[in-house]
Amino acid sequence: MTSDSNPDNPIRVAAIVLAAGMSTRMGYVNKLLLPVSGVPMIRRVVDNVVSAGLDVVVVVTGHERDAIEAVLEDAAMQLVHNPDYAVGMSASIKAGLANLPDDIDGFMVCLGDMPAIEPEDYRQIRAAFEAAYGRDADAIVVPQHEGQRGNPVVLSARYRSMVDRLAGDEGFRVVLADAGAHIVTQEMPQDGVVTDVDSQRIASPDAPTPTQSFEQQFIELRDQLTSYLFRITANLQDAEDLAQETYLKAARNLSQFEGRSSLKTWVFAIATNLARDNKRARHRWQEDIQDRCRVATKAAPEKVETMLRIVDASESTRYEFREHMDYCFTCIAKTLLIEQQIAVILKEVYGFRVADIVEILNSSEGKVKHALADARKTMIDIFDRRCTLVSKTGPCWECSEINGFVNPKAETRAQDVALTEAAERGASREELFELRAELIRGVDPMNAPGAALHTYLLTLMPEQADSPPDD
């Protein structure tokens, strides 16, 4: 069927850019936020589509909507959110089509993970559609490179009526299968139309090393980084959120990584800056907060019941005393000024050098050393006053109480023997602190046998905290 287009009514072509997927093949990261030539991938794709001069550009978001929209904030396009993005590509196409104007003649379906398609490529594909549409109002144009079909596909607006046939992640394949003679292929000189990030034919020039992508390196750091943020905030959900924010910020700014420090130090610096702005991280605790929390919890049957359910659901019946030492270390560190807390955790738990901590805190060597000295002194004083493992007159015996709660029949406390024996033979307070730090370095606060119980106890602490946040 011949279209009714004429020079006085130019053919209008809209673009739908799909940016809603969950990046399941890329694991933890959102591939659309990976940097390409220093720009987040989705921003590069949208800028190229806009530069091509399409009449309308609609970007459909879904997974990590806020992060995607943030990098597109000033782009010349319309944002549409697809809450059903988990259904697959079809739901995003439907959302995009529903927001196109009625007077368009065709629409181009663009994939957000194909940054190698240049504006000239989009223009060439549009021109092929305009030529085909002039002969056939049901025209569809499919680009190809060396005989391999690719994207974006441009379809006549008449196919909007077939939207109900779309399902899952198949896009318009079912429509293309029936289109037959209406399909026109356009040979492209470059391979961008057949190259997406999942094919691994695109390599970001910002990759930290030739052999290992930033994504892979971040995944290797993720658990350690999240546990660090957990120890800073004492809240697992905040830690996980901050770790994700760290990844997004690092990915967006990867071109600024100059290699003056290790990638690990650079990532920890980003995470630390984000943690400084976290209200829970900034809120200091009193040294007797564990006592007050214990009293309040015992007086609340529903909290005791929750603890019992956590213990019953645990696969482990063994209580590790060093886990409680780690939990106690977190609580005592929360009594410090935040700069001191960060410095001592980085040094004593994660083994960062002073030079690394200077980089992470963006501070001077003198200030970092002073913060470390003050932090150690404060924590040593508190442990010496409170901990029954090193002082028989200490008021805190929570580790024994929790051991009895988890395993009432237990009669031994093998995990605290090293610390207790060191105290009994007259080890100095500094030596006891070093031994305590050594014992907790091997503890993963998120995955240890008692992690669920300690995580729950930490959520109860803010109810008893009465110190204002640091200024």
In short:
This protein has 471 residues and is an alpha/beta fold. The chain is 47% helix and 9% strand.
Low-confidence stretches: 24-28, 199-212, 393-397, 408-415
- Our estimate of the beta-strand percent is 5-15%
On the 0-100 scale, what is the average pLDDT? 81
Helical proportion, percent range: 40-55%
Our count of helices gives 19
Q: Compute the number of strand runs.
A: 10
Give the ordered list of helices and strands.
EEEHEHEHEHEEEHEHHHHHHHHHHHHHH
| Multimerization status | single chain
Largest sheet at a glance?
8 strands, mixed
Helix-strand makeup class = alpha/beta
Distance between the termini: 72 Å
Give the topology.
Layout: E1 13-19, E2 35-36, E3 39-40, H1 41-51, E4 56-61, H2 65-71, E5 78-81, H3 89-98, E6 106-111, H4 119-135, E7 140-145, E8 148-149, E9 153-156, H5 173-179, E10 183-187, H6 214-233, H7 236-252, H8 263-276, H9 279-282, H10 289-298, H11 301-313, H12 321-333, H13 338-348, H14 354-361, H15 365-386, H16 398-406, H17 417-424, H18 429-440, H19 451-460
Helix pairs in contact: 6-7, 6-8, 7-8, 8-14, 12-18, 13-15, 14-15, 15-18, 17-18
